[in-house]
Amino acid sequence: MQPINDPFDILLDAAWTMDAAVLPAKVLAFQRLRILDNLSCLAAGYDAAGTDAALALARQWSGCEQASVIGSSLRLAASQAAFVNAVRSRALDYCDVVSPGWHPSSSDVPVALACAQLGGASGQELLAALAVGQDFAQRINQAAQSNGFFYKGFDSNILGLFSGSVIAARLLRLAPAEFAHAVGLAFDFGIGTFQHYQDKTLAVRISQGLVARHAIEAAQLAASGISGPRRVLNGENGFFNLYAPGAADPSKLTEELGVRFLGEEVTCFKRYPHCSILLALTDAVLATRGELLTMDPERCDLRLEMSPAMYMVCGARYVPTHTAEIDAQFSACYIAANAWLRGQATPREFSAECACEPAVVNLAQRIQVARMDNWERFDQCRLTVTKPGCAPKVIEAAYGKGWPENPLESTDLVAKFRQCLSQSACEPLRCNTNEIVQHIEKLGNAASVAALFSALCPIV
């Protein structure tokens, strides 16, 4: 490749040349956890709103049988299979997240699985592609966030186009020039805005599928001779100028490049199926629920103070609509009311039926919210319950369980996997839980992904 005076080239060269055999065992072990957690989320969201339409359209758009729709014997074009699998993975917002709102595995893992099938990759190659792709995108994310937090209103899942196209390009074994064009084309596609969160629409789920689909399509287009933008980071309309909230720090792109693989230190795995900004709130309300149950909320004043980030994404008054489950997932007031009244936060509490239950809706609507402009931690909040004649009950929350500062253990993720599969609408996944876990554990030594897919997609 000819140099183009853009730091993009340095990242590309590292991503293309990295030998899967030299990646540390710890890095590959983390990628296995990403796969396990992603499949948990896919199983839980298998029949969620929007997934039937995604599958029906993917079948219409698919003209070949390259990769599997997980949980069935159906095969579609690789990009369309990844699209369906990604929509299901993101449907309940149960998936892992990296600040400020990038959900890497919900598109990365579907891309990796589809391209490993299509390209005949080994398990080690699949795990390495996931690690290299996530490292690539996180370095860009880190540089872009050096002087600001959110991406000017764009959904930060645009980072998934970087990671996904790198994963696809590696697993489809693109030549260096094609590799560069694949990532450039993926960037050129763009994806989503934060408006779909604020308006609580099904686009939240579908956009994740489009990230996966576009990443594979970008690699296939590049392999067919289609060129993409090359000054992707520093160009006049490159990533930093379009998306970075402040001046980027290019030095972040190359710190320990090829030595340290970024991802684990910033990843939040969730134990509740709702927006990650609200994990701490659910934790805090559940921890104090015994005392809250002694109070009659109808006789109390309820005030929820929150960070600017929480207020922007999840601070609107709770009014369930025709997409009530998404309204619930992204509502601080619903999350507090749900934990108070029901004492748990599993996928069942975020069904459309539960999201419209009158008692929970009534309590959620009685909570007054306030934005605290001086709070920098995005999940910081404070619920104050004031009963006449009594001292206020103050519930402080921050650093929810699952964030890197307060991480879940691998045993927690295995337990989540088993719970999600046991409750899944997909019978083959329910029946093959143990076999799937075993194949994921052995993936680094597998000559291909065939055995894993035999467990994920049994012929029924």
From TrEMBL:
InterPro entries hit by this protein: MmgE/PrpD_sf, MmgE/PrpD_sf_1, MmgE/PrpD_sf_2, MmgE_PrpD, MmgE_PrpD_C, MmgE_PrpD_N
Family: Belongs to the PrpD family.
Transmembrane segments: none
Top-rank taxon, per record: Bacteria
GO MF annotation list: lyase activity
Domain MmgE/PrpD C-terminal, first and last residues per copy: 272-425
Protein name: MmgE/PrpD family protein
Domain (MmgE/PrpD N-terminal): residue spans on this chain: 20-246
Pfam family, one: MmgE_PrpD_C
